[in-house]
Amino acid sequence: MESVFGLVGRDFAIVAADTSAVHSILVHKTNEDKIMVLDSHKLLGASGETGDRAQFTEYIQKNVALYQFRNGIPLTTAAAANFTRGELATALRKNPYMVNIILAGYDKVTGPSLYYIDYIASLHKLDKAAFGYGSYFALSMMDRHYCSDMTVEEAIELVDKCIMEIRSRLVIAPPNFLIKIVDKDGAREYAWRESIKDAPVPTA
Amino acid sequence: MARYDRAITVFSPDGHLFQVEYALEAVRKGNAAVGVRGTDTIVLAVEKKSTPKLQDSRSVRKIVNLDDHIALACAGLKADARVLINRARIECQSHKLTIEDPVTVEYITRYIAGLQQKYTQSGGVRPFGLSTLIIGFDPHTGVPSLYQTDPSGTFSAWKANATGRNSNSIREFLEKNYKETSGHETVKLAIRALLEVVESGGKNIEVAVMTKEHGLRQLEEAEIDDVVADIEAEKAAAEAAKKAPSTKET
């Protein structure tokens, strides 16, 4: 089962997600990037039905880009979150997207923020959030250790604690995780946490 | 002849589509716009008619981005331009969504021209009253391109071109003076061409430069003034050089 979680720090936000792509009992790949860079200062971590995840997040990304070209300025994180929720809500009673989303962004005026958007179009602005079976462990760890105004080092320590818990306590635990960060300098990959590396492919 | 311009779907006996030709008239009355393609730089320069004192000039942008690597300038009905530009921007994102690749300059030009043609062959509508100059770099090969479309829906690629007011004079100048340029030289050539028909000064010209690395950059008024000053100095020096040999002879 897929895990995505995130938290807000002093002047940044972090999103972490597992990187396994699974179909029934088969693991397709262990390095799937589920955290999309929505625009220069936004991250969209998504979990759920693989096809829906790709389709929906790419659709949101292109619409966010279109807004920027039309209006000359980027969407705020709040606006992007509400737009995303709106699209999920519109599709809900016809052809729902089975995607859970953690949207994190940094705005110059309001600083870092994080939004929890589930597949039935709930929207919550939060300091910490998690999806999937891993959320039982991640939320408990974050409830215990999170405090406001954390530095990057403290936040990564907490993220690592959550990953440790998920790895040790979840029966089918995803082996690898990807951590991305967004701050005033933009959205970017922060680190991988790998416990299984693919065997190197031998050359002919 | 007046009987054949009411319904756009009707040809005149001598094969004219008068509505399209009238649309071209509207273009000829619009602001002058110049595009010049260099080896690594493409420049668009547009005439800015004097802004009313109370108008916020920042809200009137004549050179716009369609995507990160494509820009457009036009001459003619600006309201029609808004509609066309909006459709083109949507198409750029839609193409990226379905094909996972940014549009090529030719693709989006073909799309815009196709749209303009559709409105010359549909009931109850009139053609778009504008010609566009579309610039951009091919996302895969990095080759710079400049295209022009017009109300009839035709398009073609150019090394340098002009549209709008006095475009014939500007084109003549470009035909005489065009050579392969790069970087700042391309900017100078574009501004020199526009200055043939426009009063000199940063206040009357809007210039945007596109490079592969930095995308589209609008030049500040001060930068334009600098280039204009350079051009005038070169012109003066050329005049002086013309006069000097004759004095030496006497």
Automatic annotation (TrEMBL), chain A:
Superkingdom of the source species: Eukaryota
PROSITE patterns per record: PROTEASOME_BETA_1 (PS00854), PROTEASOME_BETA_2 (PS51476)
Gene3D superfamilies: Glutamine Phosphoribosylpyrophosphate, subunit 1, domain 1
InterPro entries: Ntn_hydrolases_N, Proteasome_alpha, Proteasome_beta2, Proteasome_bsu_CS, Proteasome_sua/b, Proteasome_suB-type
Keyword entries, A-Z: Cytoplasm, Hydrolase, Nucleus, Proteasome
Pfam families per the UniProt record, alphabetical: Proteasome (PF00227)
Cellular component terms per the entry's GO annotation: cytoplasm; nucleus; proteasome core complex
GO biological process, alphabetically ordered: proteasomal protein catabolic process
SUPFAM superfamilies: N-terminal nucleophile aminohydrolases (Ntn hydrolases)
Keyword match S-adenosyl-L-methionine: no
Protein location: Cytoplasm; Nucleus
GO MF term set: hydrolase activity
Subunit note: Component of the 20S core complex of the 26S proteasome. The 26S proteasome is composed of a core protease (CP), known as the 20S proteasome, capped at one or both ends by the 19S regulatory particle (RP/PA700). The 20S proteasome core is composed of 28 subunits that are arranged in four stacked rings, resulting in a barrel-shaped structure. The two end rings are each formed by seven alpha subunits, and the two central rings are each formed by seven beta subunits. The catalytic chamber with the active sites is on the inside of the barrel. Component of the proteasome complex.
Function field: Non-catalytic component of the proteasome, a multicatalytic proteinase complex which is characterized by its ability to cleave peptides with Arg, Phe, Tyr, Leu, and Glu adjacent to the leaving group at neutral or slightly basic pH. The proteasome has an ATP-dependent proteolytic activity.
Family, similarity comment: Belongs to the peptidase T1B family.
The protein's name: Proteasome subunit beta
Automatic annotation (TrEMBL), chain B:
Biological processes, Gene Ontology terms: ubiquitin-dependent protein catabolic process
Any one GO MF annotation of this record: hydrolase activity
UniProt xrefs under InterPro entries: Ntn_hydrolases_N (IPR029055), Proteasome_alpha (IPR050115), Proteasome_alpha-type (IPR023332), Proteasome_asu_N (IPR000426), Proteasome_sua/b (IPR001353)
Gene3D superfamilies with a match to the protein in the record: Glutamine Phosphoribosylpyrophosphate, subunit 1, domain 1
Keyword set, alphabetical order: Cytoplasm, Hydrolase, Nucleus, Proteasome
GO CC, one annotated term: proteasome core complex, alpha-subunit complex
Main location: cytoplasm
Domain of life: Eukaryota
Positions of the Proteasome alpha-type subunits domain: 4-26
Family matches, as SUPFAM superfamilies: N-terminal nucleophile aminohydrolases (Ntn hydrolases) (SSF56235)
Cellular localization per UniProt: Cytoplasm; Nucleus
Function noted in UniProt: The proteasome is a multicatalytic proteinase complex which is characterized by its ability to cleave peptides with Arg, Phe, Tyr, Leu, and Glu adjacent to the leaving group at neutral or slightly basic pH.
NCBIfam families: PRK03996.1
Assembly behavior: The 20S proteasome core is composed of 28 subunits that are arranged in four stacked rings, resulting in a barrel-shaped structure. The two end rings are each formed by seven alpha subunits, and the two central rings are each formed by seven beta subunits.
Family (UniProt): Belongs to the peptidase T1A family.
Protein name: Proteasome subunit alpha type
Lineage per the UniProt record: Eukaryota, Viridiplantae, Streptophyta, Embryophyta, Tracheophyta
